[in-house]
Amino acid sequence: MANIPYYEQKDRENTLHLREMIRELPPYCSDFFRGIEPQTSSRTRIAYAYDMKVFFEFLRKENPVFGSMDIRDITLEQLDQIRAGDLEEYMEYLKYRYDDKNLEVVNKERGIMRKISSLKSFYNYFYRQERLKNNPAALIKLPKLHEKEIIRLDIDEVAALLDTVESGDSLTKKQRDFHEKTQVRDLALMTLLLGTGIRVSECVGLDISDVDFKNSGIRIHRKGGKEVTVYFGDEVEEALLRYLDQRKHMIPSEGHENALFLSLQMKRISVRSVENLVKKYARIVTPLKRITPHKLRSTYGTSLYQETGDIYLVADVLGHTDVNTTKKHYAALDDARRRSARDKVRLREEPSE
C-alpha cells in the first residue's frame, strides 16, 4: 500500500475487518451496516459489530429460546418477540460477563451506555424500515453517567515533561539506550501533541508533505475524513525542523516512505507506540496522574481556553462537531472564572486608617 494516505489505508483495513465480523452475525445485519455507512466511520461500525455480537451471545446464553441456536440463525421475527424487560436483563448482564475465552469482562457506565446505544441504533433502523413491528430498545433508558474528573497537566508539569523528554533524566538504563536513538523524534512528537491538541491517530497519520512551514500549519484528517489545517507556534516549528533534519538521513521501510514519524523499525509509528511513549515520560514527571495522549489534548484545550476564553475557538481547533461537548469538558474552568469575579468589584471603599 505504498502511496496510499494513512487514513485511507486504515479505512480499508477497518472495512475488511468489519466484513469478517459481519460474517459471524445474522445475514440481515449486513443491511444495517450498509444503512448506517453514510453517517458513521469504519471504526464506529466495527464497534457496533462487536456490540451486536455481545447482544446475540447474551440471547444464546441467557434466553432458553435461543440456547441451542447458532447466532447466524437468529431471525428478525424472533427479535420482534424481545421485550423491554429482556433488554433490562441485558443491561444487568453487561456489568459482569464472560467472553469466548471464559475471561471475565467488566463494563462500567460508559461501556454499558455504548452497547445500549448500538442496540438502539440497530432496532431503530429495522423499525423505520418496517421490518420490525416492535422497538423495545426505545423504551430503555440509557444508564446515568457520572462525570469523570478531567485529568490534565499543569503548566509546570508540561515544562517538566518536555525537559524530561529532552534530557532523558530518570529513565532506566535500558530506556536511556533507546532514548539516545529517539530523543529528537520523541521531543518533536510530544511538542506537537502539546502544542496543537491533535488526536494521536491524526498525529501518527501525518506525512512529511502535510507539514507546511511557510504557513506554520499541518494538514490532518479529522474523524469522518474531513481535511483541515491546524496551526502551530514557534516551539513546535523548532522541534519539527530539528527532527526533519534527522529524518532526511533515515531509510524508511517500503510503503512507509512518506510517514513523518518513524519507529525504530523504520515504519510509520503506531498509536500504541505513541501511547507507550507518553506513558513512559509522564510517569516520571507526574506518577499520580494517568497521562495518555488524550490527556495531552485536554491540556492543550485547557491552556487555549484559559488564554482566550473563547469556547467556540477551542471546539473548532480540537475538531469537536458539537460545541456542547467542549462546554461539558471545560465547565469547571468556567466556574473558576466566575468565582474569580467575586473579588473584582468593590462596593465600598476600605476605611482609611
Features:
353 residues, DNA polymerase, domain 1, hpI Integrase, Chain A, 3-stranded antiparallel beta sheet, two-stranded antiparallel sheet, 15 helices, 55% helix
Give an overview of the whole structure.
This protein is mainly alpha-helical. It has two domains: 6-139, Tyrosine recombinase, N-terminal domain (DNA polymerase, domain 1), CATH 1.10.150.130; 155-338, Orthogonal Bundle (hpI Integrase, Chain A). The chain is built from 15 helices and five strands. The chain has helices spanning 6-22, 29-36, 42-62, 76-79, 84-95, 109-128, 155-167, 173-196, 200-204, 234-247, 271-285, 293-308, 311-318, 323-329, 331-340, and strands spanning 96-98, 104-106, 211-212, 217-221, 227-231. Strands 3-4-5 form a three-stranded antiparallel sheet, with no helix packed on it. A hairpin with a 4-residue loop joins strand 3 and strand 4. The longest helix is centred in the middle third of the chain and has 24 residues, at 173-196. It is globular, with a radius of gyration of 25 Å. The N and C termini lie far apart (80 Å). The model has no long low-confidence stretch (mean pLDDT 89).
Radius of gyration over C-alpha positions, nearest whole angstrom: 25 Å
- The whole-number mean of residue pLDDT values reads 89
State the helicity in percent bands: 40-55%
Main sheet characteristics: 3 strands, antiparallel
Strand content: 5-15%
Number-wise, the strands total 5
Q: What would you call the shape?
A: globular
Q: CATH superfamily membership of the largest domain, which one? A: Intergrase catalytic core
What structural class do you assign from the helix and strand content?
Answer: mainly alpha
- Provide the CATH topology of the largest domain: hpI Integrase, Chain A
Give the CATH level 1 class of the largest domain: Mainly Alpha
Tally the helices: what do you get? Answer: 15
* N- to C-terminal distance: 80 Å
Order of helices and strands: HHHHHEEHHHHEEEHHHHHH
Major β-sheet strand ordering: 3-4-5
How many domains make up the 3D coordinates? 2
CATH architecture of the largest domain: Orthogonal Bundle
